[in-house]
Amino acid sequence: MRLDFLFEPARFKWCQQGLATSVKKQSFLRTTAWILAALHRQINVTASLGRLFVHFSTLIMTLADILVIVAGILIAFGNKSADLNTRKLVSGILQDPAVTVMLLGAVSATHVNSRRTGGLVSMGYLTNYGALTPNNVPVDTLSHILYAFADINTDGTAYLTTSSTDEQNLSELYQIKLKQRNLKVLLSIGGGTASGEGHFNFVTDAALRANFVTSAVHYGLDGIDLDYEYPSSTAEGSGFADLFTELRTAFSTLQSNNGETEPYQLTAAINAVNYNNQFFVVSQTDAALTYWNIMGYDYSGSRTGTSGDGCVNHIVSEGATLAKIVMGQFPHTCIRGDGSLIHKYLGMPLYGRSFEETAGLGASYTGVGPGTYPYSQLPLAGATVSENTTDITSYSYNSATQEFVSFDTAAVGKLKAQYIQNKGLAGSMFWELSSDKVGAASLVGTVANTFGTLDQTQNHIKYPSLVYPSKQSRSRRFSKARQV
What we know:
Blueprint: H1 9-24, H2 28-48, H3 54-78, H4 84-95, H5 97-108, E1 121-127, E2 144-152, E3 158-160, H6 163-179, E4 184-190, H7 192-196, H8 206-219, E5 223-227, H9 234-257, E6 265-271, H10 282-288, E7 291-295, H11 322-328, E8 344-349, E9 351-355, E10 372-374, E11 384-388, E12 393-398, E13 403-406, H12 410-423, E14 427-431, H13 443-451
Parallel strand pairs: 1-2, 1-14, 2-4, 4-5, 5-6, 6-7, 7-8, 8-14
Antiparallel strand pairs: 2-3, 9-10, 9-13, 11-12, 12-13
């Protein structure tokens, strides 16, 4: 935690005045506090210029931060003769939310996992099997790309599934990251199919988890997204939490070894309705995570008895409103003691779910047709679009063909973005980018434009062992054959 706010012009003036007063009055404790504050300022500058002594700086900054605050409290509120400037400075520090976070972090020794800066998060999944290539992604509307999917060998190691495609895509993403330093790329591992086939069974074995962690860190990027659908026992839930704890430790070591100030990011995809959520060890997992990804879609479909809104809103068949999705379904809702929702972001679909031979919303149906339509093809010809601004839902219905399709319109996307802002969520996520419309009709773009400035946290361009080659010189392969 860097207390740069301590050195805003007005407060730094107090610091200088306090130091002079301290020396004049020969107060050892006060002089020590002000010198440490000044040292803290100098170290921050030094760390910013080349990160020359980052490890030593981090230690000194932490000690300086704590000692300045503790000394300031003792001085300003325990010494009646303390000067007014000292009182002002300490009062300003204590009222700053960053100090509370720092003190709580120092006491609990937890990692600083989230450093969202300058705006909201805008995440999108980019698949290695879709038609969309990295160079065609409108990255100005994104702060994060989740590259999907890597899979897991039987020995627990993570691997990329399509070597030639992944190699080219990761090369292009690396070049984009060099140009847009606030664009983070996370490797997404798992997915519904891999989860259903038992590829996450390794989480209950400590040795296999260690293999996974080593291989995941090997890929570098800006972190890891795990899509595990879903732990089905207490042992799996505990193993999943242990895996994130071990990943955080490994990535923190990588961050330290690289002399970097930005933590690597870890995210987990979760459902919003109570489906095996009781097995998540929320507090332990949350301590290691950067963000929870609430998959706010697929709440109606072939498994439900009536047509309904498949997104995160008014779902007649399942009774899941937007407020329930965000606030009420996931255990403990990942809300910290201060009520903060900063570590949750809302997932939205870039597709619509279809229902055939139905009279409309909430009615029974026969068949689901193609199952889904990409957002780029919606609404279908001849269908009438309905939008409910209260429940923040939309769908289309064609009375002639009796086909109902649940999807988010641009207007609903804007309302969801405003909901995210009003509720203090971290931002949005979209599955998946190749299904979006282009230009002004883009759902990702609509949400990003509503947010305004996006997260400006810097990405990582130094990787531990992999070389991300140019398309002209592919010097290293990225994946290996799956072990049998």
